[in-house]
Amino acid sequence: MIQLTENATKQILKFREESGLPEGGLRIAVVGGGCSGLSYKLDFQKEPSEKDKVFEVDGVKIFVDPKSFLYVRGLTLDYSGGLNGTGFTFQNPNASKSCGCGTSFAV
Q1: How far apart are CA 21 and CA 26, in angstroms?
Q2: CATH-assigned architecture of domain 3-106
Q3: Residue pair 64/2 in contact by the 8 Å Cβ criterion
Q4: Is the pLDDT of residue 1 over 80?
Q5: How many C-alpha atoms does 92 have within 13 Å on its Cβ side?
Q6: How is 8-59 classified by DSSP, letter by letter?
C-alpha cells in the first residue's frame, strides 16, 4: 500500500489538473541513480500498464510497476511547501539510508 498525506493529495490533484490529465493517475517508480543509488520518479499517466499495482487514495489513482513496488511498499508521500523548500518528500520504511535532499535512497 502507498499512503498520501493531506498536503500531498492536494498538490497531486492540483498538478494532475494542470497536466491535462484530470482523470489520470500518478506513476511512482524507482530508477537507478542519485547519490544513494536509487531515485524516485513521479509522473502522470492516463492509464496504468497491464502489470501495474493500482491504488486509489483520497481520489488519487497511483500506478506502480511490480519491480518498483518492492522498494516502495509502505511508502508515505508528503508535500512540503515551507520556507525550507518545496516539493514531495518520501517516507520509505524500506530505505536503509537516504541522501540529504530525500530524493534518492538505498536498501
Answers
A1: 10
A2: Sandwich (2.60)
A3: yes
A4: yes
A5: 27
A6: HHHHHHHHHHHTT-TT-EEEEEEEE-STTSEEEEEEEESS--TT-EEEEETT
Query: What residues form DSSP beta bridges with 87?
Result: 80
User: How confident is the model over 52-95, as pLDDT tens digits?
Assistant: 999 999 999 999 999 999 999 999 999 987 767 678 989 989 88
Judge contact between 29 and 40, C-beta under 8 A.
yes
**Measured between alpha carbons, how far is 54 from 57 in angstroms, rounded to an integer?**
10
CA distance 38 to 71: 9
Cα 42 from chain centroid?
A: 5
